[in-house]
Amino acid sequence: MTTPGDSPNATRTSKKVWRTQLLDERRALPAELHESEAELLAAAAVAAAAGATDPVCCYVPIAGEPGSIRMLDALREAGHEVLLPVVPIDRAGSLGPRGPMNWAPYEGVDSLLSGPYGLRQPAGPGWGPAAVATADLVLVPALGVDRRGVRLGRGAGWYDRTLPLARPTTPLVAVVRDCEVLPALPMERHDILMTGVLTPQHGLRAIPLSLD
Questions:
Q1: Partner of 102 for a Cys bridge, out of 5, 86, 201, 210, CB 3.0 to 4.6 A?
Q2: Residue 140 contacts by C-beta under 8 Å, 6 or more apart in sequence?
Q3: Which of 26, 21, 28, 12 lies closest to 175 in space, CA to CA?
Q4: What b/e readout covers 173-204, taking b as 16+ CB neighbours within 10 angstroms?
Q5: pLDDT-based confidence at 10, cuts 50/70/90?
Q6: Is the pLDDT of residue 36 over 60?
Q7: Domain spans of the chain?
Q8: For 159-189, how does the pLDDT look when each residue is reduced to its tens digit (9 = 90+)?
Q9: Count of H helices and E strands in the chain?
Q10: Is the dihedral of CA 2, 7, 13, 16 positive or negative?
Q11: 130-148 residue pLDDT tens
């Protein structure tokens, strides 16, 4: 764990150590447990979105991330418009400018195409980066989150550039396993704090939170 006086290099090194540890733990998770937690997260996401009248921003879980496509389908079945992030790609198939992500409606699993980093993203026309400002709830993928709301992502920085466009009152909720809610994680200046955490066993909890 780093402290406020640590150098930027020390903080980045600490993040790499945490990423390696948390990814290793996810790879070791039995498939049956992942599936059962995914069902719990689908129900928890619907409960978290209760009362939302504007779109819900979500994502397609990949590579052992908590949850499954069922989370998106459950939100749609509950009557919510679901927006998914689209990482920009140029005509040559390379990554586009590293700015905020685009957003496009989720219209079912058959509407998804392969994207960068192993992502699956909508094929249809996007609503642009500013679409995140229309959301009543933003569900954010994370490797871990701490009691202050510090989120550990995979390090590409797309969400750090995108989430500042959300409305200040919109909940930013990290989706993780219960054991991935941690006492403290290293933080850099550009990191965007989460306002809530969604886990299989505890559902939605507001941040800051107690780990007692």
A1: 86
A2: 59, 151, 159, 163, 172, 173, 174, 175, 194
A3: 26
A4: bbbbbeebbbeebbbeeebbbbbbbbbbeeeb
A5: confident
A6: yes
A7: 8-206
A8: 999 999 999 999 999 999 999 999 999 999 9
A9: 4, 12
A10: positive
A11: 999 999 999 999 999 999 9
Residue 126 · residue 55 · CB < 8 Å? no
Nearest-angstrom CA–CA distance, 115 and 122: 9
Contacts of 175 (CB under 8 A, 6+ apart): 41, 45, 65, 66, 67, 139, 140, 141, 142, 197, 198, 199
> Shortest CA distance to 55 belongs to which of 159, 113, 163, 139?
139
Residue 120 makes CB contacts below 8 A (sequence gap 6+) with 60, 62, 112, 113, 114
State both tokens at 174. Answer: 């990290």
CATH class of the domain defined by 8-206: alpha beta
How many CB atoms lie under 10 A from the CB of residue 113? 11
Give per-residue pLDDT as tens, 66-115.
999 999 999 999 999 999 999 877 665 666 667 899 999 999 999 999 88
Residue 194 pLDDT > 80, yes or no? yes
Query: Residue 53 corresponds to which tokens in the numbers above?
Result: 């009248």
- The sign of the torsion formed by the CA atoms of 170, 100, 46, 34 equals negative
CA distance 91 to 195: 37
Q: Nearest to residue 129, comparing CAs of 159, 93, 169, 101? A: 101
